[in-house]
Amino acid sequence: MQAFEDALSMGQHKHDAYAKQDSYNWFTNDTQNFTNICWFASFEPDIIRSKFNELISNKTIRYTKIQLKWLRYRWLYKQYRQSHNKAERRKILKEIKSIGGLKKTPEEKI
């Protein structure tokens, strides 16, 4: 149930966007974890995935602009942390800072 709630979230905080993307990936990627959880809950995995895809198709599950910006931020930040090249890090940091409309607390700022 939590994964469905996360996928349906329209929250604007970064943690909402991250949980939404993680749940989206959990439903759409064919993993043994998803299959096991469905069977343990007495649900048919293919039916659950089909219902999830139906919610995507009818736009019940969708991303807000802010959520998409947070996901872009997350991806860039991972690239930044993995980069060992100073020039590349500067380039990524510039792109991170160009993402507008995100409110970060002081401890979240790069």
Q: Mean pLDDT, nearest integer?
A: 92
Shape: elongated
Q: What structural class should be given to the helix and strand makeup? A: mainly alpha
Measured between the Cα atoms of the first and last residue, the distance is 34 Å
Q: If helices are DSSP runs of H or I spanning 4 or more residues, what is the number of helices?
A: 6
Could you give a short account of the major beta sheet? none
N to C succession of SSEs: HHHHHH
Task: Report the C-alpha radius of gyration, rounded.
Answer: 17 Å
Instruction: Specify the helix fraction band.
Output: 55-70%
Poorly predicted tracts of residues: none
- Overall tally of domains: 2
In terms of DSSP E residues, the strand content is under 5%
Q: What is the count of β-strands?
A: 0
List the quaternary state of the chains. Answer: single chain
Give structural notes.
The chain has 110 residues and is mainly alpha-helical. The protein has 2 domains: 62 residues, no CATH class; 39 residues, no CATH class. The longest helix has 18 residues. It is elongated and about 50 Å long. It starts with a helix and ends in a 13-residue tail after the last helix.
Short structural description:
The protein has 110 residues and is an all-alpha fold. The chain has helices at residues 2-8, 14-28, 32-40, 45-57, 65-82, 86-97.
